[in-house]
Amino acid sequence: MPVDNALAEVREVLRRFQDGYTMRDLAKLDDFMRLFIESDEAELIGIGASVRGGPEWFQGLASIREIIESDWTYWGDVIIDVEGAKINSLDNVAWLSTSGKLVQTQSFDDALGFYVRQMKELLENDEVELNERLMEATHFGVRRLREQHKGVGHSWPFVFTAVLVRDESDWRFHTIHWSMPVD
Known about the structure:
Layout: H1 3-23, H2 29-32, E1 43-45, E2 57-59, H3 61-74, E3 77-80, E4 86-90, E5 93-103, H4 108-123, H5 130-150, E6 155-167, E7 170-179
Parallel strand pairs: 1-7
Antiparallel strand pairs: 1-2, 3-5, 4-5, 5-6, 6-7
C-alpha cells in the first residue's frame, strides 16, 4: 500500500477516535473499542502513569474500555488536533503525535465520588510502599483541587501519541499515550 494511503487511513482512525470522545455515547462504546487491536497487548497510558501496571497504565481491552468509559463519563471535552497530527508508517506499523486540549465541562462535585474511589485505590495498592502511596494520593488530591479551582471552561493542554498496526485491512491502535505538561 502506498504510504500516502496509509497515512490518510491512519488519520481517519484518529478522526474516528476523536469522534468517539466528542460524542461520548456509552451505548456505542463497544463499537468504539474496535479501533483497538484485539489483544491483551493493547495499552492506553494515561496522564498519571509512571509504572507499567500501576495507576493510569491500562493493558488489555477490558481495562482500556473501563478507563474510556470513565473518560466519557467524568472527563471534559477532548479536542485532538487531528489535521495537525504528524503521522509516519512503515509496512504494517504507524505512529503519530499531536496536541490537543481538555476543556473542563463538569463541576468538581459531579465527579467527587469517582475521585475519592481513585484515591482509595492509590492508598490500597499493596505493591507500592506506604510513603509512595501517600505521596501519590496527595498529589492526585491536590491536582483535583486545582481543577476545582480553575473551574468549568478551563482548558488543559495535552500531547497525544499512538502506535497503530494494520490488522488485516484495518489500522487499529496498539498503544496510546496521553500526557500533560507539569503544572
